[in-house]
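Re: folding output
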Amino acid sequence: MNRYFIKLAYNGSRYHGWQIQENAHTVQAELNQKLTLLLGQEINVVGCGRTDTGVHAREFYAHFEIEGTLDQLSD
């Protein structure tokens, strides 16, 4: 497993916060879905904290793990 760290900024106006919640649109769920689609394997992003509904983030850090490396996935 390889761990990758990412730095994010987002407008939280259309989200119910960072953390995944049942029946709510969240930043973490959206990021998991898009990275899973892009990288072809199940991704679970872990954030450095949480934000509430409608809160923006100017500098938010997270990480995820994948089998292999990003270079290998692009081949």
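--- second protein (sequence, then structure) ---
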Amino acid sequence: MNATPKTLDPTATYVHLPDGGAALPVPVTETFWSELASGARDYPGRLMTAYDVAADMAHWEVHPDGDEVLVLLSGAVDLVFDGADAVALEAGSVCVVPAGMWHRFLVRQPGRMVAVTAGEGTRHRPL
């Protein structure tokens, strides 16, 4: 293999983790999530994303095609679920959100989160 290791800004470049073991950089655009939700983008497998959590999530979301792993690197949030008890996340903690469960987060202390998501089929709904 002749690949060269490289660093990425995880908030500007996500990583597609298709079945088979590859890790493929994906530049983030303003229309990334709407294109994914509409089917215009296709990333079978998992998508690793990172983002700053500075404000409460302004909508609900669901990932019907697989569980989502959320890793809170810094800060503190409450994960709120439709039909289940909320879960408090502190810096360094992990939560597995089951496939098909509507969820959102409420920020108690701003920070950064990493998500590993089965992104295909992701949907959003208003509060």
